[in-house]
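thread: overnight batch results

M.L. [08:02]
morning all. the overnight job finished for the chain we discussed friday. pasting input first so we're all looking at the same thing
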Amino acid sequence: MQKFLDAANKLISELKSKIAELTAELAEYKSVRGKLRTRELEQENEELRSKIHGYEAVIERYDLWYLFGRKRSKNMTREENH
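M.L. [08:03]
and the structure it wrote out:
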């Protein structure tokens, strides 16, 4: 009977060790995945800011700022509103 208990305890110990390894590996994977997603979002943000800049240039060229609010002008950008 003692042999079975010793074998079971050894197996439990090995399984706990494996769980700890897998947990650490999963945490590393999530960290890398989060960084990749951040990089994607930063790139998308840059593309959108570029589009906005292009739209603002067209609006300025045709003097259409009056269509976008009472006191809106070329100088009032999204960054200034924050």
